[in-house]
Amino acid sequence: MDGVGRPLYPMPLARLLYRSSASWLLLLAWAGQAVHARSGKEPDTFDTTYVKDYSHILTGRLYFSTKYNKLQLGGTKGTKALIYRPNNKVNFGVGASYRALSLNIGVGIPGLNKDEDKRGKTHYFDAQANILAKRWATNLFLQRYKGYYLSSHTQPELGWHQDTELPTRPDLVQYNLGLSTVHIFNNDRFSYRAAFNQDAWQRRSQGSFLAGGYLTYFHLKSDSSLVPVQYADLFDPGLQLRRGGFLDLGPSAGYAYTLVIKEHVFFTGSVVLGGGISLQRAVSSASSGEEELKTSAGAGWHGQFRAGAGYNSARYYFGISFNQENIGYLLEDRNSFYWSVGSIRLNFVKRFDMHIGFMDKGVRWFRRKVKEPVEEALPVLE
Question: Could you point out which of 41, 213, 315, 327 has its C-alpha 20 to 30 Å from the C-alpha of 2?
Answer without folding.
Answer: 327
